[in-house]
């Protein structure tokens, strides 16, 4: 392995250790395009907000099948959709930043990542969740948004 390739490999490994890991649970999936070596599919994954107990975001996204998909080297399509809901009693583990990355998951070996960002809307006492890919496709980033209103009497603590 040449030295520049080794530096890139070490840098990617280090970045993966410090970047927030997405802790998701696959809720279900549907096959969209049959391949003998593994079908393309749309998956629905549940992400629990780590700082807001009682809020779960459901993200649907396309996953590439075939040999590359099986090996984890395929580039998944950029499209994704998000729906966030109150699924229990809301409890904050501490004050929230006005805007912060909550989850991220790789959509290709090194070039594309799906992000979920939490934005606090204090005027409406709501949490807004935005999903987008950090690789621009066809001139504009594909994105989707969802919001969770806080129950009466619950105020979002801000940093």
Describe this protein's structure:
With 159 residues, the chain is mostly beta strands. It has one domain. It is built from 2 helices and 8 strands. Strands 1-2-3-4 form a 4-stranded antiparallel beta sheet, with no helix packed on it. A hairpin with a 4-residue loop joins β6 and β7. It starts with a helix and ends in a 10-residue tail after the last strand. The N terminus is likely disordered.
Report the span from N to C terminus: 46 Å
Query: So how many helices?
Result: 2
Which strand order do you get reading across the main beta sheet? 1-2-3-4
Q: β content, as a range?
A: over 45%
Tell me roughly what share of residues is in helical segments: 10-25%
Mean pLDDT: 76
Number of strands: 8
- Structural class of the secondary elements? mainly beta
List unreliable stretches of 5+ residues. Answer: 1-22
Number of domains: 1
């Amino acid at each position: 392995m040449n030295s520049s390739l080794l530096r890139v490999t070490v840098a990617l490994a280090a970045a993966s250790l410090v970047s927030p890991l997405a802790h998701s649970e696959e809720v279900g999936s549907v096959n969209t395009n049959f391949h003998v070596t593994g079908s393309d599919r749309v998956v629905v994954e549940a992400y629990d907000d780590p700082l807001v107990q009682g809020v779960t975001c459901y993200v649907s996204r396309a996953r590439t099948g075939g040999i590359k998909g099986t090996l984890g080297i395929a580039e998944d399509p950029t499209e994704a959709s998000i729906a966030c809901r109150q699924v229990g009693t809301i409890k904050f583990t501490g004050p929230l930043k006005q805007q912060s990355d909550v989850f991220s998951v790789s959509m290709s070996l090194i070039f594309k990542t799906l992000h979920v960002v939490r934005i606090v809307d204090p005027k409406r006492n709501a949490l807004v969740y935005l999903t987008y890919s950090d690789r621009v496709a066809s001139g504009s980033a594909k994105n989707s948004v969802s919001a969770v209103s806080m129950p009466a009497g619950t105020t979002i603590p801000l940093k």
